[in-house]
Design brief:
The chain is mostly helical. It has 2 domains: 56 residues; 196 residues, no CATH class. It is built from 10 helices and no strands. The chain is rod-shaped.
């Protein structure tokens, strides 16, 4: 499932990149004709005002748009991954604990194997070592927890990339716009608001675009971190409860 989602997201991103290059080339070739076919489609889908705002930002808007799609793709993937990884802890333990108390370990393992998420995975890993004693169970659960934590942390680097680079590209566009404005002043040898307006507008639009991308991605990044913390707490509670019951069932004190 994870590989399938990753493949779909990769295809979407590559399609967007190729479409961006095609649009840029067509827009350059048809500049004197008032725009190209892809621009007309974009105006139909997103509105002429948004397309004009995008064009006013200049070249920096393209990498910012790419980061927006990149961040959105990982937001969707991370949301699905965390949503499918979350289980009802109490309901899960209510099924597992009575079986462990009755020493029906195979049935408990079967339930854990059929339950999605990291909580069930670490319990299954522990039950696999039940014949080797409680110490082996503890070690298996600890090792499985480390592996599951690495899975839970996936995607945060990519989200941080969008959060960091989008404003930086916006500021780079701001610098480029201000350079354009000062070049216009130097060429005109006079200060006139109409002369510098274009460069300043580029500067403001790119800064705005960078923040528009970074702020919502940062919000979802924080939400996902909270969700991961909740899953980690469930993993700790489940492991403590199961190892305690196993110790009593085996007849060995921790």
């Amino acid at each position: 499932m994870r590989k399938f989602i990753g493949t779909i997201l990769l295809i979407m991103m590559m399609t967007f990149v190729f479409a961006s290059f095609a649009y840029a080339q067509e827009n350059t070739a048809a500049a004197d004709q008032g725009g190209g076919g892809l621009q007309n489609i974009a105006e139909l889908v997103f509105g002429s005002g948004l397309v004009k705002w995008f064009k006013d930002g200049g070249w920096a808007m393209w990498p910012i748009l790419f980061l927006a799609i990149y961040g959105l793709a990982y937001i969707i993937w991370k949301f699905i991954a965390l949503l499918t990884g979350k289980v009802n802890l109490n309901a899960f333990l209510n099924k597992i604990v009575p079986l462990i108390k009755d020493k029906k370990y195979e049935e408990a393992k079967e339930i854990a194997s059929k339950t999605r998420g990291p909580v069930a995975s670490i319990i299954y890993a522990g039950l696999e070592k039940i014949d080797k004693g409680i110490d082996a169970v503890d070690e298996a659960i600890e090792n499985a927890s480390m592996i599951e934590m690495s899975y839970l942390e996936k995607g945060f680097i990519e989200l941080s990339t969008s959060i960091t680079l989008a404003p930086m590209l916006g500021f780079l566009g701001t610098v480029a716009g201000m350079i354009t404005a000062f070049d216009s002043i130097a060429a005109a040898r006079a200060v006139d608001a109409t002369i510098v307006a274009t460069g300043i507008k580029i500067a403001l639009v790119t800064t705005e675009a960078g923040l528009i991308v970074a702020i919502p991605v940062q919000f979802f990044n924080n939400v996902f971190m909270t969700m991961v913390d909740g899953i980690v707490i469930d993993m700790q509670r489940a492991s403590e409860k199961v190892t305690e019951i196993l110790a009593e069932s085996i007849g060995t004190k921790k």
